[in-house]
Amino acid sequence: MSTFLWGTATAAYQIEGAVAEDGRGPSIWDTFTHEPGRVRDGHTGDVACDHYHRTAEDIALMSGLGVNAYRFSISWPRVQPGGLTNEKGLGFYDRLVDDLLAEGITPVPTLFHWDLPQELQDEGGWMNRDISGKFADYAAIVAHRLADRVETWITLNEPFVHMAFGYALGVHAPGQSLLLDALPTAHHQLLAHGLATQALRAAGAREILISNNCTPVWPASGSPEDLAAAEAYDTLHNRLFNDPILTGAYPDLSAFGKDAPQDGLDVISTPIDGLGVNYYNPTRIAAPRQDAFPFDDAGVTGYPTTAFGWPVVPDGLHELLTGLKRRYGRRLPPVYVTENGCSQPDSVSPDGTVDDPERIAFLDGHLAALQRARRDGVDVRGYFVWSLLDNFEWAEGYHQRFGLVHVDFETLRRTPKSSYHWLKDYLGHQ
Ligand code: FCB
User: Fold this and answer.
1) Which residues are identified as catalytic?
2) pTM for the whole thing?
3) Fewer Cβ in 10 A, N or C end of the chain?
4) Are 243 and 269 in contact (CB under 8 A)?
5) Residue of 386, 388, 392, 400 best suited for mutating to test ligand 1, as the one with most atoms within 8 Å of CB
């Protein structure tokens, strides 16, 4: 039995900064953040946490915390700007991997966490099927360099969120509002995942995962209309991205007036070694009031909320994990919770400490739910807190603080919060 991975998670654009250094090319997030009105208060990831220059300090924070794993993402435009391999970009991740291993921390890289090279967006981004093959070429380049030391790989982060926010609703890069016409980006990301899985394995990768954002879907009532709407939402958010990989077939998309693609399913269903699950909250769904989508978000009420306004429902993690087991049975590979966490309005108090009791309660509740799901027979092999550091939270800029470590974005000073000390103690007892 392999060791349970206890880790923290981050993503390149959210923490690295150094956007024009060592040959990195522009990504869709560089373009998007510099367009007026896209991100709250015009924040950008130009500097972010300056992790690119502070990796030693950030690794020391992780070893102080006592985690044995670190999920980070590799910036495609750093490694392959303009389609050409950039030795300096690869070198950065090569050193990061060595430095993590030297501290006994297992590196778990994600190959795509939304920062598509801008020149690929100029060719249509994920609306263009050819990007899938280009992603596999990039995956092979990274794997040839790192697979001698990196065992566990994640292909994509949350293809649902990238499709929905980036291409359907326009609130994330690349800022397109295609509504249901964004659906091809699901198929092309899934093809990219399958092709990359094959390329990674050919280059010696041992364990390959995808991180899907998953949500338990609660119908707003027992009415047939609300039940049908909830089923449609479950199809779009969860099954569209899990079914083809785990069962080799798309769910029925007729509620969306679409035929599911029939090609490439053999590639998409290339066996994986684990399913990464990112969990934040359940979703409550009602029948639609207007007709853009066959459902409406009715909002979960009656629970505490985070600074983002997201409901805090620890039992939702148990419901999600046991629900996956029920739905996929023996087809469900081992599960890794690759993101879970909350934003809170944390600040440094005059005595220099950061007290975040809500985050401690959040972690305590979710870890209990996770352990309960394991006892109930779900083969969970890892848990990663989002996030190590406060960082650039996409359309919210620096306004949502998800870190176990507070970052002062003026001075870039890092201060471990009380949740960091709490988790250190928890991990000491595992
Ligand atoms: C997830 C993203 C991650 C972070 C958290 C709060 O959807 O994968 O980058 O923004 O939400």
Assistant:
1) 158, 339
2) 0.98
3) N
4) no
5) 386
